[in-house]
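Here is a typical protein record:
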Amino acid sequence: MKQKNNTGLFYILIITIVFILSCDEKDIVIETMGYSAKNGNFGLQGRFQIYTDIIGDESVGVDYRLSSKYDSSIYIQAYDSTLNQTNFEFPNFQAKYSYTNSDNVVNNYRAISGVFIISRIEGGIGLGTFSFRALNILDINDTISITNGYFEITVEKYKRLL
């Protein structure tokens, strides 16, 4: 009886193990974001950027930016000059929402109330929630509520020298 040669499988297994062990946390990218609006529930890829403003050797503020990654449906920005704020109530944050209706018309809204909460930033991942009521920039009689907003996204960190 002939014995099977498993040398090829052995090498594939070793290469796979080495590859898995060589990956570190920075290689893992999480882009989960979602919300509800009058036109449905949405799950999409998002970006969470943190810009730390620096004067000399001192951090003087943090600019948080949350947005949908491949379209402009959601954009939220909050600035923290205390360096420890994580709960932003309107008007301490800005939010924009846009969607294209069934007539292929883009509707753009700006927040008039709401909240943006960064629950935690841990291991390079930012988690939080948001909700806001927004006014159509061209029709003051048209408002929309964005509810149940959430995000779990790999943080992109930047420093801005002022």
The mean pLDDT is 88. The first strand starts at residue 31 and ends at 37. The CA atoms of residues 20 and 148 lie 36 Å apart.
